[in-house]
Specification:
By secondary structure, the protein is α/β, with parallel strands linked by helices. It has 2 domains: 196 residues, NAD(P)-binding Rossmann-like Domain (Rossmann fold); 103 residues, UDP-galactose 4-epimerase, domain 1, CATH 3.90.25. The protein has 10 helices and 14 strands. The strands form 4 sheets. Strands 3-2-1-4-5-7-11 form a 7-stranded parallel sheet, with helices on both faces. Helix 4 packs parallel to helix 5 and helix 6 packs across helix 10. The longest helix is centred in the first third of the chain and has 21 residues. The protein is globular. It starts with a strand and ends with a helix.
Length: 317
């Protein structure tokens, strides 16, 4: 069996990645969390849960022992990073370096790092592929780009096989309701639909984002772990080829809510300003598709599952 460490494996994206991997008999999955309280989780019965503080050399060394591949998602989120840029650089930047060095010393074969599409800049508009020069603007993106550079440099020196995955806007049902990512636009709107029966947008909703279902995120990582897949220069965009305006995704959630629950929540938003327009966005994954990967695009299923989780966790008024 191939032993795989998923850092941040109890989080929003990490939980779904860990669950996808744990469903494959050939993989022995270990998930790490920064919490010191360790307990087996019922939604991940086939994985081991361990504690790891990225600032601790001893912890990083311990969790990397006998591991074939590290999938690294542990980082400060965009809200935490914006509130404390120094901590973002410390945890996401230095913490990733510490884990990388521990992986090298432990003889880990591969290191997959989850970065963000936002390293390309803000706002994300136009055609974005891996040849676009990154220009991160937010502390969250700057910290991720710092980690990227250390990881790619190690790969260039053939110290360890490395892969940087620049993820666009992943959406779908978290593995459990305690995942504190209800500020993400799809999660937030699904929760609003269930608890308030109204979808309130903070903006006019004309801005476009690329959305990828969490199902496809997990499938992409499994794809990258196949020995015949070439990691090339180590940088891949991971998106859904699904650029939508925020108002469009709100209308999709509205329609699914009516189908699943039998009621249609209203949509409230500020009126677009004079001359405001929707700048097009194409987040290309041509490079990824050239390796043989195909999106499944389970958009409706992910929205429905998120709505059902919200109903169970937060109740329906």
């Amino acid at each position: 069996m191939s032993r795989i460490l998923v850092t941040g494996g109890l989080g929003f994206v990490g939980g779904r990645v860990a669950a996808a991997l744990a469903a494959i008999p050939e993989y022995e999955v270990v998930v790490s969390t920064r919490s010191e309280k360790i307990a087996q989780v019922d939604w991940l019965p086939n994985a081991q849960v361990v504690s790891c503080d990225l600032m601790s050399d001893d912890d990083c060394h311990r969790v990397c022992q006998d591991v074939e591949t590290v999938i690294h998602l542990a980082a400060l989120n965009e809200i935490e990073s914006g509130q404390n840029p120094q901590q973002a650089l410390l945890v996401t930047g230095l913490g990733s370096l510490k884990l990388l060095e521990a992986a090298q010393n432990a003889g880990v074969h591969g290191f997959i790092y989850f970065s963000t599409a936002h390293v390309y800049g803000a706002p994300l508009v136009g055609v974005i592929n891996e040849s676009v020069i990154p220009r991160p603007a937010h502390p969250y993106a700057i910290a991720h780009k710092t980690a990227e550079d250390f990881i790619l440099a190690a790969g260039d020196r053939s110290m360890i096989e490395t892969l940087v995955v620049r993820l666009s806007n992943a959406f779908g049902a978290p593995t459990h309701s305690e995942v504190n990512r209800w500020t993400l636009v799809v999660n937030d709107l699904c929760r609003q639909a269930v608890t308030a029966r109204t979808l309130s947008l903070r903006s006019s909703g004309l801005e476009q984002r690329d959305f990828i279902a969490l199902d496809d995120v997990g499938r992409a990582i499994i794809h990258f772990l196949r020995p015949e897949v070439d990691w090339d220069d180590g940088i891949f965009n991971l998106g859904g080829e699904n650029s939508l305006r925020i108002i469009d995704i709100a209308k999709m959630i509205q329609a699914r809510c009516e189908s699943v629950f039998g009621f249609k929540p209203g949509i409230q938003r500020p009126e677009p300003s004079t001359g405001e327009k929707s700048d097009p966005l194409t987040y290309e994954i041509v490079k990824l598709k050239a390796t043989g990967f195909e999106l499944r695009r389970r958009i409706t299923q992910e929205i429905d599952a998120t709505l059902m989780l919200c109903q169970t966790a937060f109740g329906c008024q």
